[in-house]
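Reply to dn_fold:

You asked what the input looked like. This is it:
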Amino acid sequence: MKSLGYKIQYKGNTRRYLVNDRWVTRRNVPEYRKAQKEVDYKYLNSERGKIMEVITGIFGRPYSNNNRVKWIPELEKKDVWLIVMNHIARMKEKFPGSNGRLCFFCKKPWTYIRRPSNGTGRKQQVINTNFSMDRLDCEQTYKKGNIVCCCFACNDRKGSSTPKDWRVYIEAEKELKRINEME
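and this is what came back:
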């Protein structure tokens, strides 16, 4: 921003602006905050912005409440980014004519939509078609061979179920089918 129209004061390397009789840094100047909010909104609605938001969430702070375990990734962020790009390449190969941005589970395209904040401080409503990442086996951490790219809806549906659970469900389904055929 060129000139914000406020008096400027320098303290060391920090520039401060006189806003409503208070000296504040640039990030606390209303015009700058509004402009920064627009830039952030555009970035987080972009492919790179949304993917980086999801990856950063994997590497976030450990949970301190709800007795939830925070899985510490066995990879670096660049390795997770590579997993996403390889997933896209595989899906392009598997589904020619698509852009490769398809859910691992349902094979439907994912999105990168972020609703604007309503200013209440409440969490934004989730978009089920948005890009997400999941651990295939919830009893293992984020590591190579256990991370899949999917849509939020499939990630949410899968929840904390494990491959062992899936085998049990499939066996139960077969058993129910046998019982119904005998009746």
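DSSP finds five helices and five strands in the chain.
Hope that clears it up.
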